[in-house]
Amino acid sequence: MKQIYNWGIVGLGKIAHQFALDILKTENANLWAVASRSKQKAINFADEFNVPNAYGSYNELVDCKDLDVVYIATPHSFHCENTILFLDHGIPVLCEKPLAINSRQVSQMILASRGRGVFLMEAMWTRFLPMINNMLKLIMEDTIGDVVNIKADFGFKANFNASSRLFDAKLGGGALLDVGIYPVFLSLLLLGEPNNIIAKSDFASTGVDEYCKIVFEYEDNKTAFLNCSITENTPTIAEIYGTKGMITLQSRWHESNKLTVKLLTGETRDYEFEYNGKGYNFEMIEVMKCLTNGKLESNFMSLEFSRKLINLLDKVREKTGITYPEDNISTSDISFQKIYNN
Ligand SMILES: NC(=O)c1ccc[n+]([C@@H]2O[C@H](COP(=O)([O-])OP(=O)(O)OC[C@H]3O[C@@H](n4cnc5c(N)ncnc54)[C@H](OP(=O)(O)O)[C@@H]3O)[C@@H](O)[C@H]2O)c1
């Protein structure tokens, strides 16, 4: 990979700052442009990270010269609209998780990517961490035997603020889509799609889910017990039980650099991996490799995987009664299908 990739960031909130720090540490990645709804905010961000191009609207960024790829870091409810804006202008997109609010929106995004022939990937950064790749290698080598059971959680106590991204349904608030997506991702990666779902949530005064407890049941009595919360600090550990032993992804497992293998023989092995930064560089490298190779999607975090992930989240939402304004089908979806099919 020789080319330097000029990155743009869309939506300059918390994660945008983290991502920008990791761009600075990633070979071949250059932080080239930032876009905010506020020109002053864009200028401040650009000053902080020494970015040459700062825009006061997302629309202006599409005309930025020499821009190679954008990272969408807006609240979930804008992912679909923001992503399609850039795909329509031929600009590759790495979009934050969840790829969108529901399957319908994700289908629109996939249609836009394939219709325009432009790269798209969900920024499920955990998929690219060395710890996850090592876990997969250990499982493929049959170290713990057949995976039969998973327990994984992700919970933290957020300060309640009705108009914040986490608590406002209009911004896609709630535990399941924000943090529950990680345990659901892990279960999909290791056990695939379940045959049966049992799920329960409780709701904040704003209507978003404060927690979600999920049981996925699979063939041969395999099971995943998953749990997420935005009102409680939980251990945030993942345990993968196999017929010969278990793997523990240490806390907080979705970003961890440590895992432990415990075999039924009594043997224990600890693994630790070096990260240069927070860990967002691994997904960035994957995007840049795909672009170098002219690929429209990643083999490791494919659009089909993202579609399965959001389908699963939709099904959990159906069981628990979690809803969003975007769930109402509008007539504009029908004309949307026509644009990309023609
Ligand atoms: N991968 C990870 O580790 C990770 C961690 C945290 C969050 N995330 C994901 O990243 C996304 C953003 O999360 P965040 O924590 O960075 O959120 P945040 O701090 O609230 O920032 C979101 C940004 O989106 C923009 N935005 C556009 N329309 C908005 C609206 N109507 N209301 C509020 N903001 C709006 C704003 O940027 P401007 O004002 O500059 O336009 C805002 O700063 C979410 O989808 C989340 O799931 C991922």
Helical stretch tally: 10
- How far apart are the first and last residues' alpha carbons, in Å? 35 Å
How are the strands of the largest sheet arranged? 8-9-10-7-11-12-13-14
CATH architecture of the largest domain: 3-Layer(aba) Sandwich
Keywords:
342 residues; alpha/beta; Rossmann fold; Dihydrodipicolinate Reductase, domain 2; 2 domains; eight-stranded mixed beta sheet; 10 helices
Could you characterize what this model shows?
The protein is α/β, with parallel strands linked by helices and 342 residues long. It has 2 domains: 5-125 and 279-302 and 313-341, 3-Layer(aba) Sandwich (Rossmann fold), CATH 3.40.50; 130-272, 2-Layer Sandwich (Dihydrodipicolinate Reductase, domain 2), CATH 3.30.360.10. The chain is built from 10 helices and 14 strands. It has helices at 14-24, 39-49, 58-61, 76-88, 103-116, 130-140, 175-191, 280-292, 303-320, 332-341, and strands at 5-10, 29-35, 53-55, 69-72, 93-96, 120-123, 147-155, 196-203, 209-217, 223-229, 238-242, 245-249, 258-263, 268-272. The strands form 2 sheets. It has an 8-stranded mixed beta sheet, covered by helices on one side. A 6-stranded parallel beta sheet has the order 3-2-1-4-5-6, sandwiched between helices. α5 packs antiparallel against α9 and α5 runs parallel beside α10 (332-341). It is globular, with a radius of gyration of 20 Å. The mean pLDDT is 96. Bound molecules: NADP nicotinamide-adenine-dinucleotide phosphate (NAP). NADP nicotinamide-adenine-dinucleotide phosphate (NAP) binds at residues 11-16, 36-38, 41, 73-76, 78, 96-97, 123, 125, 165, 171, 178.
